[in-house]
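We emphasize that the prediction below concerns an isolated chain of 214 residues; any contacts that depend on oligomerization or on bound cofactors are therefore not represented. The input was used exactly as deposited, without trimming of termini.
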Amino acid sequence: MTDEDATSESTGHDHEAPDPGHMVVAAILFEASLAPLALFLGWLLGHPPLLGLKWSFRDVVVGVLAALPMYALFQLLIRWPIGPLERIKRFFADELTPLFGSRPASDLALISIAAGVGEEMLFRGVIQASLTAWLGTWEGLAAASLLFGLLHPISATYVLVAGLLGAYLGAVWLWSGNLLVVMIAHALYDYLALRALFRDASLDPLANDSDTCA
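Result of the prediction step, given as a token string:
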């Protein structure tokens, strides 16, 4: 084996792709860890997030319906990406599809549920509730939405899109008064968006390879 071959083999090992199964577990654990963080911060700030959570079949239905406008917007953005939106689409294709595109629907559902519960407990149940108490209803909504966007720093455009989605979820939470509604809306939107993203032929690396070979 020549030095060049050894270097090439070593480089290949250094850049070995992460195991998709491990990445699913990591994503679930990260999103789920936001729930205990929310409980701790809620206790610290005097806004326990679970106080705003109550079971209601009507609110389950409302949560499902609240996911539909977000999903419709998502479909518009991936079907007709304009300018910087195309770069966001390519990021998902290049970074997320290799990791999660081949995973079963159950894995995507678990990631989505963990995100819906954890992020909504933290951002709506604690952060927006606290900011609303300090700044006022609409100021708190704006500040929490801005923070939600800034913590999704894929690109400046994605920060804006995430901030708008955060504002929508925050407004739904204010209107419904039940954290369950936005948990369901967030989780269902994430699941539908991930399924659509990985099903889209233009984002499927195998489909792209087939097109190239043809």
